[in-house]
C-alpha cells in the first residue's frame, strides 16, 4: 500500500500562510502565485484528510488542529534546513547562505564596519540580513526563519548558544547647557526621570537604560517613547529631554551636526553586552563562532 507524505513545499506554504494571515502576502513570501499557494494547501488538506484553514472572504482562520500541524511543520522545515547546513559546515568555513537578524540599535552602527571585511575575507558567504526587534528576532530564530541573531544582553532569547562579543557602554546625552552642575560621569540620581526619552516598547535598549537607572517601573510611560535612536537624538537636540545612547552609536557619528553633550553613565549596569546567538546543537556552530570572531573585532 502506497504511503503519501506531505511535501516540504506544501508545509512551507502552510507556515507562510500562518505567518502572514493572508493568501496574497504568503504567496509573495514564497515567490509563487496566490492560486499556486492555495492549491498546495488544499492538496495538503486532501492528503491528510482534515481541514487546516477556514477560508472566508475577509479572514483566514486556522483550525486548532491546523495550528498544531503548523507548529510541527515549522520543526520539519527547520530540520530540513539543517540538512543543508550540515553539508555546508563540512565544506569551506563561512560559505553559502546565512540568514542573520540584527536589532535596530546595533544594525546601523556595526554593520557598516563588518560587511566590507566579510565580503573581502569570505567572498563565498551570502549573508542575508534582517533588522528587527529582539523579540521578533528570537522568535524567527526558533522558527527557523533566521540562522543567528546579533543582539544585546541581557535578553531572554530561549534555549540558545551565546557568544559574547564586547561590552557597549551607555552614555547620557543632554542638550547643551543642561545638567551643568553634574561632573563626569553622570550617576542615575542626576537624571530627571520626567525628561528621560526612551525607545518605544520592543527595543531592549529601553529596558537596559531603565535597569541602569534603577527605574524599570517607567517602562509603560508612552510620553517618553521614540521610534529610533536617530529620532530621539533630534528630540534631545531640540531641548525636549535627555536620553541614553550606546557607545557604538556615538562612535558612528550619530551626534554630528547637533549640540548635544554626552557623558558616561556611572551605574552598576552601565553597559549592554553585544552577543551572537544561535540555536543549540546547530551543525553550523563552527561558522557562527568564526563569524563572532569577525564581529568582535569591529567594535
Summarize the structure.
This is Hydrogen peroxide-inducible genes activator. The chain has about 300 residues and is an alpha/beta fold. It has helices at about 10-20, 25-30, 35-50, 65-90, 105-120, 135-145, 205-210, 230-235, 245-250, 285-295; strands spanning about 55, 60, 95-100, 125-130, 150-155, 160-175, 185, 200, 225, 245, 260-265, 270-280.
Description:
This protein has about 300 residues and is an alpha/beta fold. It has two domains: about 10-85, Winged helix-like DNA-binding domain superfamily/Winged helix DNA-binding domain (Arc Repressor Mutant, subunit A, Orthogonal Bundle); about 95-299, D-Maltodextrin-Binding Protein, domain 2 (3-Layer(aba) Sandwich), CATH 3.40.190.290. About 40% of the residues lie in helices and about 25% in strands. Strands 3, 4, 5, 6, 7, 10, 11 and 12 form an eight-stranded mixed sheet that branches. Helix 2 (about 25-30) packs across helix 3. The longest helix has 26 residues, at about 65-90. The radius of gyration is 23 Å and the shape is globular. The model is unreliable at about 215-225 (pLDDT under 50). GO terms for molecular function: DNA binding; DNA-binding transcription factor activity. InterPro entries: LysR_HTH_N, LysR_subst-bd, WH-like_DNA-bd_sf, WH_DNA-bd_sf. Pfam families: HTH_1, LysR_substrate.
